[in-house]
Fold these 2 entries.
Entry 1:
Amino acid sequence: VWDAIWLDLNAVTLEAGAAELGWIGDAALGVAGGKLAWIGPRQQLPGPPASLAREVHSAGGRLATPGLIDCHTHVVFGGNRALDFALRAQGVGYQQIAAAGGGIRSTVKQTRELSEDGLVAAALPRVQALLKDGVTTLEIKSGYGLDVETELRLLRAARRIGQLLPVDVVPTLLAAHALPPEFASDRAGYIDLLTRELIPEAAKQQLAVAVDVFCERIAFTRAECARVLEAARAAGLAVKVHADQLSDMGAAQLAAEFGALSADHLEYTSPAGVAALARAGTVAVLLPGAYLMTGETRPPPVAALREAGVPMAVATDCNPGTSPCTSLTLASTLSRALFVLTADEALAAVTRNAARALGLAGSRGTLQVDQQADFCFWDLQHPREFSYWLGGNACWASVHRGRRRSYEPTRH
Ligand SMILES: [Zn+2]
């Protein structure tokens, strides 16, 4: 006997290779032990619903998709950068904003001032917004602490969020995000701190499953990033790369060399970079929120990625400086408007391919038997409508590990 059965729904399974996203009209979903126990056309159910499950629910004819997966966020931070955004609109340059106390250093300062409780409290409303919009698995990066103590505190705050709210949190260490002021004249010293102390400690305490680096002229060189990624590999952690966002750093190739789960941004990635990602099986994570908010005009090479067969994911990149975005469905729509993904690609980008970008393809991102029972019901008629609405929230209900969610913290 299953725990629950859901009826009166049309499902898209997102199974790889399935036509029309694996559309099943008048479908039924069976859930047992937090996993999907059955999915198919209702008339093929092996018996009357009430005999198959303890609870029988109706989805009222709505569209069901896999639970959404936000595979790139920096959602835990102190303060915000609304003043920077206003100043940029007045034509004040990045350097001047930084000199006036804005920029990433202001976020680092405000983040260091917060306790673990303070960080959790600051992030909770943002995470709740993501959840109400359908997110059931959420990647959270550190990267605004830039010292051992605060980076580990950020990762502990990320873990707490996953304990307080019905969402799976995937924590990533991004200490190679910016050079902290204390190391302004000792770049090698900061890399040493990461490779010798912080990465081994985060791995030992099981606070991160991956290490990310920001490979860019305003952040870290390829050689510096390679040292960090080697340390990650030695510690048994997966790797990811913020790659070629502002210039072609050859960072996609770096990601491929290290067998990265994902290379993210990619606006300036060259054809050689695309080919390297294809060979390595690395997922291209596209971040239209940052593209929009920074006024970037060069989109990532979507046609080349598609042609090469590189799986494309889309994420919010929720962060205070360049993408204060708390809706993954909005990011999905933006990926169509700004990067010309197809409707099918934009839905796969926040489900199946986002799972792969987190190394979770075996358990999430599709509606298949034995996958974790994470799914959403939408007030939508057709899957192409999913990435059509610009804002708003069409998510009627969502189920995480087999349980219908409410979004208030369970305990503190
Ligand atoms: Zn990012």
Entry 2:
Amino acid sequence: LKGGWFKLYNCRWRKAELKMRVLLTGASGLLGGYLLRELKSRGLEVVGWPGPRDYMLYGIGDLAEPGWIADAFREVKTDLLIHAAALSRIDACFHEPEKARRVNALASGQLAYLAANVGTRMLHVSTDLVFDGQKGNYRESDKLLPLSVYGSTKRDAELMVLKHPEHVVARVSLLFGPSLTGRVAFFDQQLAALRSRSPLTLFEDEWRTPLSLAVAARALVSLALSRCRGVIHIGGPERMSRLEMGQRLAAHLGLDASAIKAFRRDSVPAVEPRPRDTSLDSSRWRSQFPDVAWPGYEDALPEMGVA
Ligand SMILES: NC(=O)c1ccc[n+]([C@@H]2O[C@H](COP(=O)([O-])OP(=O)(O)OC[C@H]3O[C@@H](n4cnc5c(N)ncnc54)[C@H](OP(=O)(O)O)[C@@H]3O)[C@@H](O)[C@H]2O)c1
């Protein structure tokens, strides 16, 4: 059977996959596009909520204005909620902290409550930026010390979601891969700059464990469909700087990397401090989901059409 009735993870299966209806928030976003594709490929019924940019098209509202959420959630009658919507740009959160709090924290708390009330499990997508970056190789139990408004609102969301023991929080690392929605994201800009040999400046002293969008989508859907609870880290297998990512991308595509310039964190004025090393230790995820492929950087690129 497509989707696998009998697929069992260590976390244990919870319901026959094919009968499930999944509500996906943030469906119009970078990760949302990959999640939508992954859910569809498993034969699941998906109701996608895009964000306010496509409001006129779909009639779905703004999570910053929560009056509509409860009715719309009830109407969907979902078995599973994957919450990927967020005000995800760090600078936007800094400039509009109240909006960031409402979208990232309060709406997540409200959705977690609504879902728990009707026995629906929720997977909440969080970030490595809940850490201050002093230590690196963070485990799920490490202390949350966000440096930015974005990180603080995502931390607050986690706390609200985790009040409901049936829900799960996945902290994902920096995601890479081309946008599926036609909206140009950082990776697309980087690719275009490399192809046109335009100057590209990348940090050499900030480290993450980058994860491909395709792998992230597979990992998150498998996690959502499992019985795993609490917090789980889903990062890539290698700790890398943005500079190394750019250089390896150029080498993978046989492009000239000489237009890439390195810069250091302290050479760039920033309104908020930037965490130095938010690499994630993903051993909990790997031990519970060993069958989800975990390719290295170059091996993950062709699957997303970057070859
Ligand atoms: N990208 C990364 O490297 C990364 C790393 C770690 C964690 N994450 C997390 O992964 C999730 C998805 O991120 P992403 O990179 O896909 O971000 P994205 O491309 O900016 O997508 C965010 C989604 O949320 C929606 N949204 C934004 N504001 C909203 C609002 N006021 N009401 C309702 N929906 C709203 C957006 O709608 P519109 O289409 O209307 O804009 C879009 O669908 C987020 O929770 C983010 O914190 C991302």
